[in-house]
């Protein structure tokens, strides 16, 4: 039976895929070992192998899976969300006896949220026959950089949070676990104009692949819905820490609502700095990138009233979601967010495919293609024939220093 993915009235998306934004800068060659603790932490150079790619892709009693994500740099927190959830799921599998008598081993590779590192990792991983699949990366730019390499190797690439509309066409072995940017950002425009009822809207976004898509979609959809875009500003992540210039432009534009899609670190900093500039009675809305306990700490009282949206809400009363949240909290003393849950479900889907008879790269792909409905521990999703996911969304907001379901869902 299908379970509702969100306990509030969720808007069910009818297109595919979701958003993952991040830095698109290039930090240069050479992949450093992951900084995250626990599990295997492997640098790209150490992971290379001369074994032929068509060799048996399980060694001894182990299934090997690679995870490429940022573990250092501006986006390291998102890679660590991946790692916490993947370690949790890997340990659950192994402690229950493994799959078909074999253990799961995840090796982590630090792509620093840069396409050059992601490409290097893809070359290393695909050339090593022991790896049966790859999970990652956090952002669309890195996923797109590695996609043709995984495609040529016939290796499954699970993209937990990347949302650029083109990632599934870049690699027909790629499965994504969130709705695409075009779906998410159209919905974001609807929230701003129709659910929150504001017409004069400003846009602030990261200058990367997903940011370009965001600007295009919002500048098309907001006017089509009866709103007006009074300002669009972008910046390069990691190059700006003083947002006074952007905030001054926002004040001059006098928006009723600001859509700001960036990392939770930058969002928290921007809100704190906005307290020094009187922007008036303006609403702030962001994507699910800011849904985390850390954002609440960084933003403090400046985050009060901020809206976000998510495909996973930790305080959902659904029994299985509540149970998942509790075991995650018991391990890490924090709430899970969709970066963690999507990574967890990526491995859970691989687990299901292996239990159904997959044993190498090709058969894993074939078994994953058979999954059209996924009723996981963290929510319900459907997949179409192009490996595009359809998931419900919920509007949330900060109220009294906590994330709650926003009344605007109704």
UniProtKB/TrEMBL annotation:
Coiled coil: none annotated. InterPro entries: Leu-bd (IPR028081), Leu_Ile_Val-bd (IPR000709), Peripla_BP_I (IPR028082). Residues 1-19 form the signal peptide. The keyword Oxidoreductase does not apply. Keywords: Amino-acid transport, Signal, Transport. Pfam families: Peripla_BP_6. Belongs to the leucine-binding protein family. This is ABC transporter substrate-binding protein. It comes from Anaerotruncus colihominis. The lineage of its organism: Bacteria, Bacillati, Bacillota, Clostridia, Eubacteriales.
